[in-house]
Amino acid sequence: MFSPDYLLNNLKFYHKSNYLLLPTASLHIINHKFNLNYDNYLYPPSFILLGYHSYFSSSQIITDYIKPKNLNLFFRASNLNIHFISCFGFLNYLYQKKNKA
Questions:
Q1: Full-model pTM
Q2: CA of 10: how far to CAs of 6, 53, 76, 77, 83, in Å?
């Protein structure tokens, strides 16, 4: 869980899902430009994908540059917590926004 870059399946998913980042960004631009109001359908999957990519990339940086085991484990746990909290917070914000409208 703390080291997603060590698992081959996670690495394959990371590389295959790279192709989804630009199309989802394009959908967001179209949605915003034409006021289509599909925020609740577009944002959650794309934000989870973006959060996964950020988490995975940060994990690779930790693997490459932080060698002491204790420090490495601390930064990996922090990386997971920060990405989980930010994804959960954004999805919670969308849920609250949807219920107010």
A1: 0.85
A2: 8, 10, 16, 18, 16
